[in-house]
């Protein structure tokens, strides 16, 4: 199934400015649930948040809380994201669920650090799509890291601008509980960037086996540059993502939606 238009949204433009777009107005005491994959994606945001360990369905989760939001890092991939979303919904009863984290660019004009809010999330497994509460972009979710060749195929098949591994699962879980879903994704790998072979180092719980991956890379010098670039790109993406998520440390109760003319490195709110 192709999503020819971003589910009724205006076509994306690029004016070189970052500014606030639409907002969702939330009740003053509402709590937003944020589902990320790994802590390194959101570390700049949660440094001062309360850490709480709670259990759901036989699994322990570490949650990060403040007065306006709660965040869980559920792990990489759709199944880990689904479990984490079910846990945070069951334990915190949020009014809104947000999938936040990294994404790969399918549009070759998107640069590392560009922040996107998808209006349409497509599950590549079955072609189904879910509309978000706000947004402009088309995001397609897959079940494994996408190569450069696969990125090109996904862009052609779905007319999507970015790819991730978790948003469709988070969106579907929110939809099942009749909770508004939104997404916020920062580009960590551009369309022509070939990801290092990390798939085999993703554990069953969705966590990256960092030590095993490092041991694999250290004896393969031809991977060093790519791994270094990925680490640098991830740091840029995390900083841009968390600058937008910083709104949850503010007083206003509106959830901001970046307009589609966000540029790499612009990250900030005006």
| Shape descriptor | globular
Largest β sheet strand count, sense and barrel closure: 11 strands, mixed
Instruction: Name the average pLDDT.
Output: 85
The CATH fourth-level homologous superfamily: Nucleoside phosphorylase domain
CATH architecture: 3-Layer(aba) Sandwich
CATH topology heading:
Rossmann fold
Distance between the termini: 37 Å
Radius of gyration: 17 Å
The CATH class designation is Alpha Beta
Q: Can you write the helix and strand succession as a string?
A: EEHEEEHEEEEEHEHEHHE
What's the structural domain tally?
Answer: 1
Helix percentage? 25-40%
Strand content: 25-35%
SS class: alpha/beta
Name the assembly state: single chain
Number of strand elements: 13
Counting H and I runs of at least 4 residues, what is the number of helices? 6
Give a short summary of the structure:
This protein is of the alpha/beta class and 270 residues long. The protein has helices at 39-46, 78-92, 148-158, 167-176, 210-218, 224-245; strands spanning 20-25, 32-36, 50-56, 59-65, 69-73, 96-105, 115-116, 118-123, 129-131, 137-141, 162-164, 180-189, 254-258.
Descriptive tags:
270 residues, 28% helix, two-stranded antiparallel sheet, 13 strands, alpha/beta, 11-stranded mixed sheet
């Amino acid at each position: 199934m192709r999503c020819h238009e971003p589910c009724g949204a205006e076509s994306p433009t690029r004016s070189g400015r970052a500014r606030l777009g639409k907002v969702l107005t939330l009740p003053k005491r509402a709590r937003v649930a944020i589902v990320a994959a790994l802590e390194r994606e959101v570390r700049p945001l949660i440094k001062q948040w309360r850490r709480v360990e709670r259990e759901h369905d036989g699994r322990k989760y570490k949650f990060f809380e403040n007065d306006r939001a709660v965040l869980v890092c559920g792990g990489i991939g759709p199944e880990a994201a689904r479990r984490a979303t079910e846990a945070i919904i069951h334990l915190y009863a949020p009014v809104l669920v947000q999938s936040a984290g990294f994404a790969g660019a399918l549009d070759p004009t998107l640069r590392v650090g560009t922040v996107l809010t998808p209006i349409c999330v497509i599950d590549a497994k079955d072609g189904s799509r879910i509309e978000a509460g706000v947004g402009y972009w088309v995001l397609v979710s897959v079940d494994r890291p996408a190569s450069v060749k696969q990125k090109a195929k996904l862009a052609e098949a779905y007319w999507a601008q970015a790819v991730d591994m978790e948003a469709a699962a988070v969106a579907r879980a929110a939809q099942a509980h009749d909770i508004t879903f939104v997404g916020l994704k920062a580009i960590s790998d551009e369309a022509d960037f070939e990801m290092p072979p990390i798939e085999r180092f993703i554990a069953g719980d969705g966590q990256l086996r960092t030590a095993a991956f490092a041991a694999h890379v250290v004896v393969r010098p031809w991977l060093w540059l790519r791994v270094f670039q990925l680490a640098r790109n991830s740091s840029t993406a995390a900083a841009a993502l968390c600058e937008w998520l910083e709104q949850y440390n503010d007083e206003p109760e509106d959830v901001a939606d970046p307009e589609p003319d966000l540029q790499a490195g612009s990250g900030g709110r005006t």
